[in-house]
Specification:
By secondary structure, the chain is an alpha/beta fold. The protein has one domain: Thiamin diphosphate (ThDP)-binding fold, Pyr/PP domains (Rossmann fold, 3-Layer(aba) Sandwich). It contains six helices and six strands, in the order H-E-H-E-E-E-H-H-E-H-E-H. The strands form two sheets. The chain has a four-stranded parallel beta sheet, sandwiched between helices. Helix 1 packs parallel to helix 2. The longest helix is centred in the N-terminal third of the chain and has 15 residues. The protein is globular, with a radius of gyration of 17 Å.
Length: about 150
């Protein structure tokens, strides 16, 4: 935990220095933002103008030990990232079109962060927003019950 962004910054910087095209994507949970290495990497990405880097943060408001606001309240999260010099969007993380629009927007020399608000276990009544399902493995019966509740388009 907390190593994804530093590694992604290194990859994006290497691509820039080598003159290679392409975007480096990093997916994180908001719980990872408790790690100092994330913020060090955020500053480094801004310093090197890594506009070939997109970080997506899954903000489901739950992390390993409880609700994020009770562990370390990250709000206002978008302001924090903008304060570090990132281009920051906050979207509904269940809206695929919003995700695509955000990750493909131009950033004019800045790294981009997409703050994707989500609901843990969305679509499964007994899992939605429940800390227990951050850890719990499903047996076959519970797995089938969950699948039965999901809507596929």
């Amino acid at each position: 935990m907390g190593h994804g962004l530093p590694v992604s910054v290194g990859m994006a910087l290497a691509k820039k220095r080598a003159g290679e095209d392409g975007i480096v994507y990093c997916i994180m949970s908001e719980g990872e933002l408790n790690e100092g290495s994330v913020w060090e990497a955020a500053m480094l990405a801004t310093h090197h103008k890594l506009d070939n880097l997109v970080a997506i943060i899954d903000v489901n408001k739950i992390q390993a030990m409880g609700h994020t606001k009770d562990i370390i309240d990250l709000e206002p999260i978008q302001d924090r990232w903008q304060g570090f010099g990132w281009s920051a969007d906050r979207i509904d993380g269940h809206e695929y079109q919003a995700i695509e629009k955000s990750i493909t927007s131009e950033t004019a020399g800045k790294p981009r962060v997409v703050i994707a608000d989500t609901v843990k276990g969305k679509g499964v009544s007994f899992m939605e927003g429940k800390l227990l399902y951050h850890y719990k493995s499903l047996d076959e019966e519970t797995y089938q019950k969950a699948l039965g509740e999901l809507q596929y388009d």
